[in-house]
Design goal:
Layout: H1 14-18, H2 25-33, H3 37-47, H4 51-57, H5 64-67, H6 69-74, H7 80-92, E1 109-113, H8 117-128, E2 132-137, H9 145-148, H10 159-168, E3 173-177, H11 184-193, E4 196-199, E5 205-206, E6 219-221, H12 222-230, E7 243-247, H13 251-262, E8 267-271, H14 283-291, E9 294-297, E10 300-308, E11 311-323, E12 326-337, E13 340-343, E14 347-348, H15 352-356, E15 361-362, E16 365-366, E17 379-381, H16 393-412
Parallel strand pairs: 1-2, 1-4, 2-3, 4-17, 6-13, 7-8, 7-13, 8-9
Antiparallel strand pairs: 5-14, 10-11, 11-12, 15-16
Length: about 425
Amino acid sequence: MLEAERCLYCYDAPCTTACPTGIDVPSFIRRIADGNVRGAARTILESNPLGGLCARVCPTETLCEEACVRTTQEGKPVAIGRLQRHAVDALMDSGQPQLFTRAAPTGRKVAVVGAGPAGLACAHTLALRGHDVVVFDARAKAGGLNEYGLAAYKTPGDFAQREVQWLLAVGGIEIRTGWKLETVAQLEALRRDYSAVFLGMGLATTHPLGVPGEALAGVEDAVDFIARLRQCEDKSQLAIGRRVVVIGGGMTAVDAAVQSRLLGAESVHIVYRRGPETMSASVDEQHWAQINGVTIHHWLAPVEVSGQDGQASGVRFARQALAGGRLQATGATECIAADMVFKAIGQKLGNPVLLEAGLALESGRIKTAGDGATSLPGVWAGGDCRAGGLDLTVEAVAHGKAAAEAIHAHFSR
């Protein structure tokens, strides 16, 4: 209540503008201050149906909270993310968590490829409009990166699945798991059998290091490690190295590093090839890693993973520096001992089917219009697979909602 009362309830609030899903932040905080937490949750979820998970993982410090007027006045924003989590959690824990009712059935059926944040947001928005939706996903559970790509400490209590079940409870959404887009014929069948198609399959392939020793035992993609961790019932049985090196500078690198420390690794290092100001992990995420005992190194690029008897034993790095605006090796090297090395240098779409099917691509991702429409009639796309995005959960939700509204409008013509 005290934190909610710090809000100035700004007209034309910059925090709302900074939110990719356009949550009316002053409105939901006002409801908390008035004791109407259920109303606050409605305001949040009307704009962002995955508002509970986003409150846990969004870099609010660089979005709504950075734009908060209190930041300018006092150097301390209103804790918007924590207030959002408070409201949504209270709703989820209540006896009647469902807020929304579907419109009358329209007879239209939409195929959604990918059960991640973009696909689920698209499906929920379409279902509310009365359309039937079938969501196809390769994994055994819906949720995408919310289920398989976030460190366990960010989503305790199986919250990702609780949120999925809440979203599906509105009705009209069917999840089909074990389905992967692998042929042009599959996409053509979806276009033929459904009134519209939304592609939200995320990024499936991790960029390789491209250095000798990458195939040694103990070298693994960070996203695969986190996925295995999230599905492990007894985390005490999950193997972790004593000396861990994570190569990369994003939130996945931080998740893998901190989780390694929490699992018992004696030393954990994050190594990034540029300076701290260009790391995609937020300052708060970097600080979180450091207070959990992770050492962060900058200006080091991997040149070789060394090993013994087929097992990784360390990584040799080349010291980097900017020369004329370009990153160049200085000639100095540094070695860090490691029996486990995680690669977290980004992902790519890596699906040749999309180009073969005639979809226009940009920088390896699907090129779309502002509403998510692709170059193929009747096909929309959003989330990480869409070109030009920020690779944030909240942006994926915004993409899914915008595409759903565009699809609904298309049906109404």
